[in-house]
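Protein folds are increasingly written down as discrete tokens. With that in mind, we are printing a sequence and the tokens encoding its fold.
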Amino acid sequence: MKSIMDIKKCHDCDIIEGQIHEYGCDMEMCPFCGGQLIVCGCSYKILNIDVSEDSYAFENGLTDEQEIQWLQILTQKGRIPYIRWPWVCARCGKLWPKEFHTDEWTKYIQKDRQNVILCEPCFNEIKKLIDSGKSK
């Protein structure tokens, strides 16, 4: 059983694990697509709002009435509670690897693994293995 010291809080809306995020929290996941709720676009699709033809909706977001309707739909579907899942390097298993960015990611990481987390040493090792295996 967790002690009170082990309980993790969302860094954006400050709720504890197991609770529903405050509406509008940038950490809430969409129960329809699994993406980040505040940017996924499911609200427009489900509310039948064509943002390509409604520039106001695209630029300003949902109206207050649409927000209420969207929140009701989310609640009915079942909003996803906050659980703090650890970041784990998919190759070596290191917990909470430091984030890094490289423009070479898609060149060295196969397409079906490009959404995994890798620590920088593992990425560099993969890069080295691939480069050393190329015919000269």
Notes: The helical segments are 42-46, 55-60, 64-77, 105-108, 120-133.
